[in-house]
Amino acid sequence: MPQSVRTAYRERLAAGEIRPDVAQAAAIDALARLESDLDNAGEPSFSFFGRKPKSQRGLYIWGPVGRGKSMVMDLFFDSAPVHRKRRVHFHVFMAEVHAHIDAWRKGDAAERKARFGRHKGDDPIAPTAELIAGEARLLCFDELQVTDIADAMILGRLFEALFAEGVTLVATSNRPPDDLYKDGLNRQLFTPFIAMLKEKMEVVAVRGPVDFRLDRLRAGRTWLSPVDKATEAEFDTLWADMLDGAEETGATLEVMGRKLRLPRAAGGLVRSSFASLCQQALGPQDYLALAERFHTIFLEDIPLLVPEKRDAAKRFNTLIDALYEADAKLVALAAGEPEALYPAGDGSFEFERTVSRLQEMRSADYVGRVRD
């Protein structure tokens, strides 16, 4: 069996990789409890006489960005005494769920059998849950949040089916359960899901003033120019520091029926080029979705802009407006300082507001803002 989550956490403390934190320690205690429960339950490989394995009481860890929620869940995932387990960003998971549901609804009997096994009826939730449970007895979700009505309407039935299949859930979130899908359309239909979460999962808050990611941003520069070997290395180093060992799993945003693929994403972090975000046919809704989904954006290869690139400059203006209004953090690798990016020509006057916002976004006050 791998080392326990408590041992792994203590080793990080002893190595000076993290600092003592009461709220994190409480989450580690709760994870150690679940680790013990899973160990005592054993590893069922098949249901016995049709009986499903029993799910254990999971964990819902919530708190502001940068409090180490993902870090403690990673330590638990590595130590969890479960063979069939999966750690996945919640957005990625829900995209897969919708793909399964779509395949069920569009498939004929043979296609359904090939993908899901033997299932009757027209409801795709049960076969989808069984398929997921067959792949993982323990599911660890990073950044559980619900903003989409399509997700909200299926989550209750899906999670109920997963629990019935014996799946144990652990999740991190920036919001307490009662604030999920807050002010959403038909939210009264969603509240039973919240009650089920609180029944099936222990809720632990990791709150407090310490924001480890913000510490890393404060310690480094967030606007790097010009683009040369030294600034590229500094940009790469800060990206690695912010990832803190997390895997770049990528992300796909669905905006007004279109899909925006972001291959270099991990949790609330995303890295992209100026060309990918500002020289493509993207609009305000794309940038609003990006700012809502990610708390920190690494944007590289920002060029000096000229009137011939005014369309890209306008998109850059819109992107910065969206990030600024969402208190998202920007780490930029640019050919020049903000005021030098577009000093003259058609559109340069409108660019002055962007310059002002870029200057504020690199300030210690802006970088230090805590985003919910």
Report on the architecture of this protein.
The protein folds into 2 domains: 5-205, 3-Layer(aba) Sandwich (Rossmann fold); 212-367, Rossmann fold (3-Layer(aba) Sandwich). Helix content is 47%, strand content 16%. The chain contains 15 helices and 12 strands. It has helices at 5-14, 22-41, 69-79, 90-106, 109-116, 125-135, 149-164, 191-200, 212-219, 229-243, 274-278, 284-293, 310-325, 348-361, 364-367, and strands at residues 58-62, 85-89, 138-142, 168-173, 201-205, 223-224, 251-255, 258-262, 265-266, 269-273, 296-302, 329-334. The protein has a 5-stranded parallel sheet with strand order 2-3-4-1-5. A 5-stranded mixed sheet has the order 6-12-11-10-9. It starts with a helix and ends in a 5-residue tail after the last helix. The mean pLDDT is 87.
Structural features:
372 residues, alpha/beta, Rossmann fold, five-stranded parallel β-sheet, five-stranded mixed β-sheet, 15 helices
Short description:
47% of the residues lie in helices and 16% in strands. It is built from 15 helices and twelve strands.
Helix share bin: 40-55%
Average the pLDDT over all residues and give the rounded result.
Answer: 87
Portion in beta strands: 15-25%
As a whole number of angstroms, the C-alpha radius of gyration is: 23 Å
Instruction: Catalogue the unreliable spans.
Output: none
The CATH class of the largest domain turns out to be Alpha Beta
What structural class should be given to the helix and strand makeup? alpha/beta
Query: Strand order of the main beta sheet, please?
Result: 2-3-4-1-5
Integer count of domains: 2
CA(first)-CA(last) distance: 37 Å
CATH superfamily of the largest domain: P-loop containing nucleotide triphosphate hydrolases
Give helix and strand order, one letter per element, not per position.
Answer: HHEHEHHHEHEHEHEHEEEEHHEHEHH
Q: What's the number of helices?
A: 15
CATH fold-level topology of the largest domain: Rossmann fold
For this structure, the quaternary state is single chain
